[in-house]
């Protein structure tokens, strides 16, 4: 499922909103500034609220790009060597940004002779928009660090015979994306306990971005293909090219161009361009139903009545007997039903039509912790973990949980109505 802009001809992202990379060696700040100036005409179509909001935000975070960063600066020759000259034999994937290659680089620090595996993302020729996303990734992942965010090792911005080369170097995530493991093509579908663990990890990552720093970051493109798994099956959020700073104190939202992925974008954001952290909460709710059903949010290969996930599941939510119909048929059903139904209730709360009534991600995480604890106690976790295809350890800690009364699933009809969205 590809990411694309929804274009209504009303708003454009102000290129000045994207923080320039400064204070780092081997970076052409002149190039960055020049690119931003050349794209300045894009801001002419913004409305007044957008301009005033972004001006306030720039004043509120004047030193964000000067925060300490441990990013390494690579040369093009280093990354060519690491990836066998960007050989297709080491290509991991290809997306809207460009191609991603597996590589080996020398480890920095005390033992530079040791090599580590990395993923090298090479920017395709997408012009200014691609450059903005590259700059955003460097700025966001260069200053934030969390176990459930993919680590950015370094970057490259260098001229060669082909022009400016912009690359990002990440930690290598050998278990690929959650989307891959939920796909019918996957030979080893994720067991239920692992799906709960992934839901927890993703919620921790979003909670950190939304609530645990002195500024807020809105992911804006949360989806299963942007959740990667390391060698111990820990889930980490990746691809921050569309991320935005959240609104400052006293402001309710950030006005932006409407971008994202069909099937995940919150309806109020698609309709108005007003972005809040609750837009991510909606996307997270869609993801929970992906975990429950094993289906993509939009799948044109399915029968007409089953192509839109949220529409297909709606008739089965209010009846416990019918609810089993939407469960992923590849899942082992023993001890599963109660846990899956409770997870669906959390998803439903995330998908309330009015964004103000959706929970914060910290509240979602508390509910998920309670679901996991209950499932582990009731399902003999020792046998489950032995029979699954991973070695992840689950920390079963007692927590004081909030009362999570299930939402009324019969109100789903009023919570979400899909609209036809034209993408340019």
Automatic annotation (TrEMBL):
InterPro entries: Kinase-like_dom_sf, Plant_Ser_Thr_Prot_Kinase, Prot_kinase_dom, Protein_kinase_ATP_BS, Ser-Thr/Tyr_kinase_cat_dom. Transmembrane segments: none annotated. ATP binds at residue 121. Residues 86-376 form the Protein kinase domain. It holds the Pfam family PK_Tyr_Ser-Thr. It comes from the Eukaryota. It is found in: Cell membrane. One of its GO terms (molecular function) is kinase activity. The keyword ATP-binding applies. This is Serine/threonine-protein kinase pcrk1. It comes from Stylosanthes scabra.
């Amino acid at each position: 499922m590809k990411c694309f802009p929804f274009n209504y001809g009303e708003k454009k992202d102000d290129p000045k909103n994207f923080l320039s990379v400064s204070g780092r060696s081997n970076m052409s700040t002149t190039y960055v500034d020049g690119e931003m100036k050349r794209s300045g005409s894009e801001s002419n179509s913004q409305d007044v609220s957008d301009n005033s909001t972004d001006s306030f935000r720039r004043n509120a975070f004047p030193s964000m790009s000067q925060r300490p960063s441990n990013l390494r600066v690579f040369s093009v020759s280093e990354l060519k060597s690491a990836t066998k000259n960007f050989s297709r034999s080491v290509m991991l994937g290809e997306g809207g940004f460009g191609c991603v290659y597996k590589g080996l680089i020398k480890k920095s620090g005390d033992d530079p002779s040791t090599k580590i595996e990395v993923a090298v993302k090479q920017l395709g020729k997408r012009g200014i928009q691609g450059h903005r996303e590259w700059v955003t990734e460097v700025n966001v992942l260069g200053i934030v660090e969390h176990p459930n965010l993919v680590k950015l090792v370094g970057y490259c911005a260098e001229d060669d015979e082909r022009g400016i080369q912009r690359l990002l170097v990440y930690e290598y995530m050998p278990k690929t994306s959650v989307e891959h493991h939920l796909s019918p093509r996957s030979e080893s579908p994720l067991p239920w306990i692992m799906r709960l663990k992934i839901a927890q990890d993703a919620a921790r990552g979003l909670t950190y971005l939304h609530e645990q720093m002195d500024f807020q970051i809105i992911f804006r493109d949360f989806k299963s293909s942007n959740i990667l798994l390391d060698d111990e099956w820990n889930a980490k959020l990746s691809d921050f090219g569309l991320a935005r700073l959240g609104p400052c104190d006293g402001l309710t939202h950030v006005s932006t161009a409407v971008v994202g992925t069909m099937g995940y974008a919150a309806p109020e954001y698609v309709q108005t361009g007003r972005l809040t952290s609750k837009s991510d909460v909606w996307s997270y709710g869609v993801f929970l139903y992906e975990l429950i059903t094993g289906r993509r949010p939009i799948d044109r290969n399915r029968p007409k009545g089953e192509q839109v996930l949220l529409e297909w599941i709606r008739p089965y939510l209010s009846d416990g007997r019918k609810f089993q119909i939407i469960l992923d048929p590849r899942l082992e059903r023993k001890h599963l039903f109660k846990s899956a139904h409770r997870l669906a209730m959390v998803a439903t709360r995330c998908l309330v039509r009015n964004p103000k009534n959706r929970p914060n991600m910290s509240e979602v995480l508390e509910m998920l912790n309670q679901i996991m604890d209950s499932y582990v106690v009731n399902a003999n976790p020792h046998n489950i973990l032995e029979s699954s295809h991973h070695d992840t350890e689950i920390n079963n800690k007692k927590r004081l949980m909030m009362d999570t009364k299930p939402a009324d699933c019969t109100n789903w009809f009023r919570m979400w109505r899909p609209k036809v969205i034209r993408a340019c």
